[in-house]
Each structure stands twice: as structure tokens, then as C-alpha cells.
Amino acid sequence: MAGNKAKAEDMEKTVEIIRGDTPGTEWRFPVLRFSGADASAPTAYLQAALHGSELPGVAALHYLVPELERAEGEGRLRGAVTIVPQANPIGAGQHLFLQHMGRFSFHSRSNFNRDFPLLADTDTSHLPRDDAPIAAEKRLKARLVTLALGHDLVLDLHCDDEGPSYLYIARAFWPHMADLAASLGSKAVLLWDGTSDAAFEEAAWAPLSALPDEDPAWARKAATTVEFRGESDVSPELGRADAAGLYRFLVARGTIEDGRLPSLPEWSGTVTPLANVEMVRAPVGGAVLYHVSPGDHVEVGQRLVTLLTAPGEIGGETHVTAPQAGMILTRKRNRLARIGDDLLKLLGSKPSETAKSGSLES
Ligand SMILES: [Zn+2]
Fold first, then answer.
1. Strand, helix or coil for residue 298
2. Which backbone phi and psi does 257 adopt, to 5 degrees?
3. CATH 2.40.50.100 location in the chain
4. In CATH, what is the architecture of 275-348?
5. Closest alpha carbon to 354 in 249, 259, 253, 274
6. What DSSP designation does 304 have?
7. Could you tell me where the beta strands, DSSP code E, fall in the chain?
8. CATH 3.40.630.10-classified regions of the chain
9. Cα torsion at 205, 211, 213, 214 (round to 10°)?
10. Which of 112, 118, 119, 304 is most buried when burial is the number of CB atoms within 10 A of its CB?
């Protein structure tokens, strides 16, 4: 009987303020919190748009919040949930000549998803606060880590240029996080070894990093970068579907109770160690003509891209071929390449000759 259930607390909204680096400026971002009815249930932290214009996660969280409110109202929200719908107001506001550029800080050129503080435990009391004499982007990173640490499940929602839904997962979390891949319908999982150059997800699991892979803590927790398809894949339908996937995962982990959902299907996507990802790059600059799309399977030597270096002239084409057989995961949106630009991610079955340690992209 509904009357037996404790009255749900309302969602709490607070506004985080990041002091500007110069007088008269500051940034703000909202944090939405649900307290959860059971202190022992897994807690969750979800943030989106760390790279400013990566909005599929923003849409997903927009549609997830009413579902959390409903679950709370019906006494089904077990664990506390913290939502940061737009985690990077600095990056969101970076425009130059009508173009948005949210990946790198205009101030320092550092990637907004690198160089997070990696802590040995969840005590964030010694992280710099907003009055510290350091740049706003560093204080923002410290603030986001402070908000996230202590939660059992931490999802950082990003997207790629063009491609399907996929996940980056630290190896010790695998296969425990196959439930996330199944919930979201991810097409591929890329497994990290070593470091991700201190991406947010690494900061989220850093307190576990000294534990051996077989420690049960890895199975109870989750921390990852979700790549929700491409930057243009933002619509009410996709937002609702992604919200349903996130909700499904929170039910699978026991943060939300929902007996109406069918059991989660086995996940059967592609798992690829990061070293096997071919970052196919432009050997010359020019107009990019793709012969392949995300999801395509290709053979070694197959033509992937034609670059027009001198359109209309003999010898004005340069072809780029597959360094090994595999599946095309993503491709760039921008069709004008500079020499050395990333064009495609290809998931191979053996290590790439150009593999390097750390993150795939700068
Ligand atoms: Zn991103």
C-alpha cells in the first residue's frame, strides 16, 4: 500500500559557483540530488557535457530526472543519485568566430577531460577549493571530482564525432560492467590498461586502483566514459532511449527498484583493448571522402578514405587503406583534414603498429 511508504523527499538543486580568473566573471552549474531511501544501496553520479557541446548525455539526463522523481515518489529509489547535467560551463561558453570549441581550454589548451586529480582514497578535503590561486578549469576539475567521489557508480557521458554508442572501461571493471553495455545497447567496449592521462573516469576509480583485479570492490562499483554516438545524435527519441538505458543500469545495480523490467539480455558487442584500436590518420591535408561508415567491417588494405589534395587534377587524390581487418567504430565530422588529423577509429584484432600508451586522442 502506497501509504506505508515514507514520503519521498524532493529533488534538491544546488548551484556550484566557479570564480572567474579575472574580476567580474564567474561560472555556474546546477547539481541535482536525490537522497535515496536505503543508505546501503549503491549510489550513482552522472554528469554530461564535460566537453561543452557533447549533448546526447545532456538530453539523456533531461529525460532521466523525471524517472528518478517518479521512482522516488513511489518509494523505489534506493540509492542516492547525483546528476550534473552540464558539467563544464567554461567549455560550454567557448566560442570563436561563431564556432563552438569545448574540448580544450582556451586558457591553457589543456583537454577538459584530462589531468583530473587522482586520489588514493575518497577523501577530497585536501583538493583545491574555489579560493585557491589556480586557474578556474583546475578548480572546476577539483569540484567535479569532489562531487563524484564516494558514489559507487560514476558515469561520465560524452559522445564521439560520428559513430555508435560505445564505452571506455578500465580492465579491472571487465566483465563486471557488461550490464552497463547491455543496458545502453553499446556496440563496443574499449578496454583501458594503465592510464587514460587522468580522464575524469580514471579520477573516479583511482581510489580503487591499488586493489587487485579480483577484489570484489571492482564488481560492486562502476566508473566509465560513455560515448553516446555522435555529436549530432541529439533528439527527443534518442534522449529518451538513452535515459531508459541509464535507468535500466541503475535498476540492474539496485539503485532503483523496478520489478516491471524484463531481465537484462546478455551483451554481445565487440571488446577491444585500446592497443588494438587503429587511429587512421590523414597522411596529407584535403577534402575527406569516406568510403566506409561506422559499423562497417573492412579487410586489410581496403580503401577507407580518399583525400582530395588537388581536386580535378591528375594525381590529386590520396587514398587511405585499412592497416588491418576490423570494424569501423567512428569517423570525424569535419570533412576538411589537416595533415596528421585523426580520420577514423578502426577496431582491429591485433595491436596497432602506431599504438601508444595513454588516451587515444589528444
Ligand atoms: Zn568528450
1. strand
2. -105, 130
3. 275-348
4. Beta Barrel (2.40)
5. 274
6. E
7. 12-19, 26-34, 44-48, 81-84, 95-96, 99-100, 153-160, 166-170, 188-192, 222-230, 270-273, 277-281, 286-290, 297-298, 303-308, 317-321, 326-331, 336-337, 342-348
8. 2-268
9. -130
10. 112
What is the whole-number distance in angstroms between the Cα of residue 173 and the centre of ligand 1?
Answer: 21
Distance 50 CA to ligand 1 centre (A): 6
Report whether 43 contacts 153 (CB < 8 A): yes
Pinpoint the alpha helices (H) of 105-155.
136-148
> HEC string of 58-88?
HHHHHHHHHHHHHHHHCCCECCCEEEECCCC
State yes or no: pLDDT of 28 exceeds 80: yes
Q: What is the per-residue pLDDT across 92-147, written as a single tens digit (0 to 9) for each?
A: 999 999 999 999 999 999 999 999 999 999 999 999 999 999 999 999 999 999 99
Check: CATH 3.40.630.10 for 2-268? Answer: yes
